[in-house]
Amino acid sequence: MTVETATPTAPAPAAPGRRGPTLPSGSVITTFLVLFLVVAAFTVDGFASTRNAGFLLLDVVVIALIALPLTLIVVTGEIDLSVASTVGLSSAVMGRLWLAGLPLETIVPLVLVLGAVLGAVNGFLVTRLGLPSLAVTIGTLALYRGLAFVVLGDQAVADFPRAWTTWAISSIGSTGIPTVVLPLLVLVAVTAVVLHATPVGRALYAMGNSEDAARFSGIDVARTKLWLFVVTGVVSALGGVYWTLRYGSARADNATGLELQVIAAILLGGVSIFGGSGGLLGVIAGALLLGSVRNALQLVNVPSDVLNIVTGVLLIAAVVAPQVAARVRGRRRRPAAT
Amino acid sequence: MSAPTTRTPAPLPEELAAPERTGRRGSALVHRLFVVRELGILAALVLLVVVTVIANPRFLSGQNVRDLLLSAAILTVLAAGQTMVIVTRNVDLSVGSVLGLSAYATGTLLVEAPGTPVVVAVLAGMAVGAVCGLVNGVIVATAGVPSLVVTLGTLYAFRGLVSLWASSADRLQINAADLPAGFKSLGGARLLGVPVLFLVAVAVVLLVGYYLRTFRSGRELYGIGSAPEAARLSGIPVGRRVLTAFVVNGALAGLAGVLYAARFQTLDTTAGTGQELFVVAAAVVGGVAIFGGSGSVYGAALGALLLTTIGTALPQLGLDPFWRDAAVGALILAAIALDRALQLRLAARLRGRNARRDR
Fold first, then answer.
1. Predicted confidence (pLDDT) per residue in B121-177, tens digit
2. Subunit contact A316:B145, Cβ cutoff 8 A
3. Highest mean pLDDT: which range of B11-20, B78-87, B142-151, B350-359
4. What is the ipTM, given to two decimal places?
5. Are B172 and B269 in contact (CB under 8 A)?
6. Can you tell me where the transmembrane regions are (chain A) (predicted)?
7. Scanning every residue of chain B, which has its alpha carbon at the shortest distance from the alpha carbon of A128?
8. Who contacts A118 (Cβ-Cβ below 8 Å, separation ≥6)?
9. Chain A contact for B4, CB < 8 A?
10. Is the CB of B333 less than 8 angstroms away from the CB of A132?
11. Does B161 touch chain A if contact means CB atoms closer than 8 Å?
12. The CATH number of B61-345 is which of 1.10.10, 1.10.1200, 1.10.357, 1.10.3470?
């Protein structure tokens, strides 16, 4: 939903041309984020400390990580609900292989390959068999989570090497910023460049706006989507590896329900669920806003379950507000036109 | 989402008015296909039961079957409501949270006023659900926002509401001992040996099925799901119908909450968490197209029964219960792949028919 640049002459429907897919589409949510951070820093005790900033970022890392490839998928008009189950299955396999005595240096690449396979299964069912991605990934959400339990049962594997687990929660010098933020920033930059500055990125928006038009203009829609699902699988598996190290525990039920938080961040960031519009800046801001609001409310002792209300209301407000704004604008324009 | 558009006997005036005879014969073909589709799930269910019984004859013992039907009852009621919503090309992900809110509300009512008649408690739970459905429906129908997003939001919000209520009332859990005996007896009550809760579910399925099949407004739900724009142009009050579907679905999720309270009798704020997945799965396995316009509530009910049976049959077959979720996932994938294959074949056959006629 592009909210900005409504010229009074043209009725601007998410223009896929030069204006639509540029970075500023997340400016509204970014403004919200900055405002919230400033207000919270002055009103919430302990919010602005380096220690707290570290905790906040650690909680956002996996959500932001998985949101990167998933944003690309949503932009093309598809969805992948199986990401959190992929995290869980990766974590379970990691634990099982560790029990089998393999070193982590071997396990991690194997788990990433597994992620690619899981993503490829989704992609194959969606692009080759032509099944709706929503239904397919509801199926694999259950399937992958089930396999995670088959692999590891209800046990927890927690004896990973200290060097790895402490690295996962370490921070850069005395700044309080987690070390993992650096590789994450690299991935954010790569994804942003791909989405906003390459023909591939433009092709993704084109697919989301009109698949047929994209196909007629020579884009291999099926292959592109297949690769997006594969990448999402790999990144989710990476998220599973990190999740396991960060909490120092491989469990089949790791990250259950995380898919909803990732999708909430993406939609909050202004990406249309129907595809074709939105930008990466907004998604990162969305993930940070969700994380900050939760963090601030926890600091003022709001019970963690109640935070759900805030998440839900934010999500609905984020999608309803642009619609209402568009309608108001439309009403104002009409008398002038006639 | 790229919707592979499903062709159904949509009761749109222009389609009815167009080529008379092929139209009717075509829709008879479509109808037969859906009967086949439902028989397919039934066959899968029977096969599963037969295999399990061979492995373990006690699977069909009275108590086991009653437990199975009790578990299936709640999912079936949810699936019936969800079918109405999905048929209109919408989805309600908040049903698990609505169930939790309704169960907690009913429990609180019965603890605070133990003399409340069971009927009033049931109606109260349904009313809570209907209000939740109204919230969903109003946002979806008036703001023109995708239901997937709205109900993802209310999934969080309603669950948060239960937690807020429970923590502010300082009653995080409602125990069986606090509930009046009259209500508790509902959970184990039987009529001719069949659990009453299951009969409630059957009644709900028959009512919703009759409504969707017979009433004009019920048929219009299919029209809306098949082609929202065509439905609007042909004068169907799309917003109002969709709103109604959400309210009814909410009320049924509320009823499921009451059934949950009666069955489990120990309630906390997590009741029904994650149910949305199984509900949508039951509908999809039952042949309800995720992008609307086709499927029946009977199929969804059979889907719910099949999913529940898998859960109880696996241990009897000597398989680890951990296989359940994996089996459910595989079943969903098989069901949508089958639907796609049937749809392609149907399209080919209808084309063949028209080609013959044109010659």
1. 999 999 999 999 999 999 998 887 888 888 988 998 999 899 888 888 888 888 878
2. yes
3. B78-87
4. 0.80
5. yes
6. 28-48, 55-75, 106-125, 131-152, 164-197, 226-245, 266-291, 306-325
7. B337
8. A82, A86, A89, A140, A144, A233, A236, A237
9. yes
10. no
11. yes
12. 1.10.3470
